[in-house]
Amino acid sequence: MKYTGPTYRPPYEANSLLLQVTAGCTHNKCTFCTMYKDTRFSIESLEQVETDLREAKEVYGKVKRVFLVNGDAFVLSASRLKPIAEKVIEYFPEVEVITMYASINNIKSKTDQELEELSDLRINDLWVGTESGHEPTLDYMNKGFSLKDSYEQLERLNRAGIRHIDIFIFGGAGKGKGIENAIANAKLINASKPAGVSMTTMGAFGDSRLAQDVETGKFLPATELEVLEEQKKLIELIDIDTAYLGIHGINTVTFDAMLPRDREHAVQRVENAIKRLDKEFLDSVPERYSI
Ligand code: SF4
């Protein structure tokens, strides 16, 4: 299998076939992200994709789930994604889901008809980097799309029948704004009805703009207590049926839950952590690493 530069996938795709269709990320400008800083964006040839599928067929025989890498693979036009999906189905007719990371802008660049055609080709469960429903936070993150775009484009996915798992960041709004962020995130989640919400925590890594802003005092990071209170608030406010996916190793309290069914238990887990952790830690901003 060919992989160029670093390859990332959600923890939940550990058992999926990772098939490279792009390298790097087209945007590569998010304030907090250093994942693809040293990788030039490129598109994999269909010939190489087919070579990888042939190899995977020999090794795995059957594959139910494929994750197309890398950072924003849904950037590929529908005319590029369709033959890739057709090849996947040719080699693995039993495949149930072909998924990948997607930016809100990647959805925006496709027509409703294209989204439906991609859905028919089993493209589903897109991992969308929504990051925040709090407008100033989203603007600071420099994602290249507006909050209005998030509301509109996630709704378009729903209409096309494409499930999505939306990624959000605890502590994304910085010191003193965790509850505001939780309220705004819950509002977006309740409106856009994702199949799941994938939670990570803000960390100032390497030479990211965020790390520089923390260094100069332009961005004041949330304390651990604020992050946990934000986590609790978000769980309390989500009122749709969705999977809370929180096992990312960067989070302090890691668990999965089905909401609203497991709400009470989930809230209790966060409250227990707040009680258990010592005050010094709760008042600190622990160093977090990109993983
Ligand atoms: S967060 Fe996603 S879209 Fe932003 S630079 Fe990183 S990989 Fe690209």
Question: How is this structure best summarized?
Answer:
The chain contains eleven helices and ten strands.
Task: Give a structural overview.
This protein has 291 residues and is α/β, with parallel strands linked by helices. It has two domains: 124 residues, Transcription Regulator spoIIAA, CATH 3.30.750.210; 158 residues, no CATH class. An eight-stranded mixed sheet has the order 1-4-5-6-7-8-9-10. Strands 2-3 form a two-stranded antiparallel ribbon. The longest helix has 15 residues. 43% of the residues are buried. The structure holds iron/sulfur cluster (SF4).
Key features of this structure:
two-stranded antiparallel ribbon; binds iron/sulfur cluster; about 290 residues; 10 strands; single chain; globular; 11 helices; about 40% helix; Transcription Regulator spoIIAA; eight-stranded mixed sheet; alpha/beta
Shape descriptor reads: globular
Tell how many strands the DSSP assignment holds: 10
Strand adjacency order, main sheet: 1-4-5-6-7-8-9-10
Poorly predicted tracts of residues: none
Number of helices: 11
Assign the structural class, choosing from mainly alpha, mainly beta, alpha/beta, alpha+beta, or little secondary structure. alpha/beta
Helix/strand order, N-terminal first:
EEEHEHEHHEHHEHEHHEEHH
Query: What is the percent of helical residues?
Result: 40-55%
- Separation of termini? 22 Å
Average pLDDT for all residues: 97
Query: Approximately what portion of the residues adopt beta-strand conformation?
Result: 15-25%
Small molecules (ligands, ions, cofactors) in the structure: iron/sulfur cluster
Radius of gyration: 19 Å
Major sheet description: 8 strands, mixed
In the residues, how many domains can be counted?
2
